[in-house]
What does this fold into?
Amino acid sequence: MEERMTSQLFQHGFKLVRELEANLPNLADQPNVLSKSCDEILNAFRSAKEGLNLHMMFRQQQESDQTGTSLEGWRRSTSNYTQPKPIMELLQMQLQADHRSPPFSRSDVLFAGEGGREAEGSARSKSIGGGELHPMDVSDSGVVSSSQRQRRRKDDGERRTITVAAPRIGNTDIPPEDGYTWRKYGQKEILGSKFPRGYYRCTHQRLYHCPAKKQVQRLDDDPYTFEVTYRGEHTCHMSSTAPSIPPPAAAADITHEMTQIRTTQPPPSSSVPISSWLSMEYLGMRGGGSSGSASSSGSGIVLGGGGGCAGPSAPRTGKDAEFPVADMADVMFNSGSSSSNISMDFLFHSTDDKWETGDKQI
DNA sequence: AAGATTTGACCGGG
DNA sequence: CCCGGTCAAATCTT
It folds into this structure.
């Protein structure tokens, strides 16, 4: 169990590395950004290492007092969080604290909820994605009955709309990532809009009945800006067995880096007791459900590795870059706490044949 | 093969 | 009836 959490931390680190790897061609001429990303990675792995130490401590403690209650209590407290802050909000919090410009060119965040946060109940009872469990569809003949589908609309509850700047480098068709993985289920031309609107739902809707959805629409007047509307809240990370771990600063920042260039030093996540940010206390409190964006390329950023949206089924190709990544991580660990020890030559020459894979970059 | 995306059709609300 | 949202079969990707 505890090992699993730690492995999630490690996997997050790996993921950051993978992302850095994928974006390296773009970052070649932005050493400061690159350096920053390296710091994120270092922090991620450092946190993982702390987690490891923590496990060892707890294990020893558990062995000494056979009751095991302390461990149990710790676990309970760590799974006691509600919802992880969506990355957007994390960024805002973080940047607010830092007195820096907002992550994305967030012009506004408006809540259009009719007061109800009931996303969970209604969605479950009415079986949102229609298809799977329709009472009406289960005629024993297997043939769909006359009333073909049952759809639900309305009662979506809260809608949150934000505008997000698209990356001007790389594939601008892909709205910026957030910590969640989304699956596109529709696209529609909208009257009066030049660009179609994309409809996304949480990838883990099936597993966790997660009602979270979002719509992504490019603005007519500024194709580099997306308007993202979120509906419903993520419930998919509520699994008691494995809380997702959206490492606040690191994950948020690397996402951000790819989106907008800025130079900033994140709050050293390593200085935050891992137990506390595991329990999400570090993040403040609950978050509304979401953020982000999906991408047609399916390259969703998946945080953590365990619990919910952020994780159990990381769509990332899993096996592809595991070894290079591990090597890289190793190098970084051994090189101390600063990324400055890594020479650009190492990154751009000794392994340059690997960067070819980025066919969708730029 | 499983999962994601595409896309035309369907449905409900205004 | 129109429009926005969703479904689901076909297709693509991994």
The first strand of chain A starts at residue 109 and ends at 111.
